[in-house]
């Protein structure tokens, strides 16, 4: 919720030098930027502005160690087989999860099979419980097109030195009316589903950079507690998300209000991962400047170019998104009692505390 509220933003252009991004192969890229610490930042080929650079070399080995990934690929295939066997015995769950997405779930759950089972059950359960997030997922629809026109939310091509994927969130004009909040949340989850398939090697986690320069009280007012609660539970409990850091730039007084609203519902370790920056230079201590969009002094291309590339990618998945509308839990077949809205979200309008690895 913090991300979507604050993404109504217009960044101020900056000019800065590069920083290092180790652990990637040169033949994947057409350009390397010299870093301030003697290293280089791997930049994607210009012809592929939205390609998700995958870790390799020492960086990949470091990530695998953090994610507790087995060294023997056969062990991973064994785990996939165990999960498939478990799915086959769950009458209420679909059986359509492909190997690529199962690997992402395994990595996001640090290869805990029980945790993967819990996530997969929630992944399909939420599609039944919150259909407004998982139907009509078509970027050509006017409502979705409007969201993508006024909110930029692209995952960036590169990786941080720690192997994290950075996601930018910004708006384009503070004077525009708040776009459809459900459609905004839906777009975020669409990108999440694409990444389940296309993060083929695995990353250490996600880092969000939120530009709040055009966030207003009017934007904030459209995010109702009930809707926000559904979205947060969906993201944190149904997807293999590892939120490492949240960075807020171009802050204003409303930012403190929003952050203070969210913080009580997060565990202490997550509160400590929210960083409020008074200037862009401070952000560079955490995110290499060369991997950022050009509006922030980086070399990844402009936010609009990156966002448009992701819009095109989402368009390529239109048929898959449509097919997935039928891929959801069937509560009438669930062993034991069906999952109810009260059990999933509560009926008192309050948030429950979220756990993020």
TrEMBL record:
SUPFAM superfamilies with a match to the protein in the record: CRAL/TRIO domain (SSF52087), CRAL/TRIO N-terminal domain (SSF46938)
Domain CRAL-TRIO span(s) in chain numbering: 144-304
Domain of life: Eukaryota
GO molecular-function terms, A-Z: phosphatidylinositol bisphosphate binding
Gene Ontology CC annotations of this record: membrane
Family matches, as InterPro entries: CRAL-TRIO_dom, CRAL-TRIO_dom_sf, CRAL/TRIO_N_dom_sf
UniProt xrefs under Gene3D superfamilies: Alpha-tocopherol transfer, CRAL-TRIO lipid binding domain, N-terminal domain of phosphatidylinositol transfer protein sec14p
The name this protein goes by in its record: CRAL-TRIO domain-containing protein
């Amino acid at each position: 919720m913090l991300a979507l509220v604050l993404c109504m933003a217009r960044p101020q252009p900056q000019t800065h030098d590069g920083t290092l991004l180790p652990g990637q192969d040169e033949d994947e890229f057409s350009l390397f930027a010299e870093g301030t610490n003697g290293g280089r930042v791997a930049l994607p080929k210009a012809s592929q502005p939205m390609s998700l650079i995958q870790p390799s070399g020492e960086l990949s080995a470091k990530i695998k160690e953090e994610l507790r990934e087995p060294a023997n690929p056969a062990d991973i295939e064994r785990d996939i087989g165990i999960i498939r066997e478990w799915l086959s015995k769950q009458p209420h769950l679909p059986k359509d999860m492909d190997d690529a997405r199962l690997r992402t779930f395994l990595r996001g759950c640090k290869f805990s099979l029980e945790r993967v089972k819990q996530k997969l059950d929630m992944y399909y359960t939420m599609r039944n419980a919150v259909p407004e997030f998982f139907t009509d997922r078509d970027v050509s629809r006017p409502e979705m097109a409007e969201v993508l026109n006024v909110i930029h939310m692209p995952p960036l091509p590169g990786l941080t030195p720690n192997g994290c994927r950075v996601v930018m969130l910004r708006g384009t004009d503070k004077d525009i009316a708040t776009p459809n909040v459900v459609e905004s949340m839906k777009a975020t989850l669409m990108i999440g589903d694409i990444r389940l398939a296309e993060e083929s090697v695995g990353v250490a986690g996600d880092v969000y950079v939120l530009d709040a320069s055009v966030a207003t009280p009017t934007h904030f007012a459209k995010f109702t507690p009930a809707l926000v609660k559904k979205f947060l539970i969906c993201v944190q409990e149904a997807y293999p998300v590892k939120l490492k850091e949240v960075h807020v730039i171009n802050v204003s007084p409303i930012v403190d209000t929003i952050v203070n609203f969210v913080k009580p519902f997060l565990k202490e370790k997550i509160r400590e991962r929210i960083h409020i920056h008074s200037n862009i230079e401070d952000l560079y201590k955490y995110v290499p400047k060369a991997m950022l969009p050009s509006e922030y002094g980086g070399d990844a291309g402009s936010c609009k170019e990156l966002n448009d590339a992701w819009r095109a990618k989402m368009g390529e998945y239109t048929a898959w998104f449509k097919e997935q509308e039928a891929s959801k839990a069937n509560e009438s077949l669930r062993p034991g009692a069906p999952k109810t809205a009260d059990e999933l979200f509560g009926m008192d309008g309050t948030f429950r505390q979220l756990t993020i690895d």
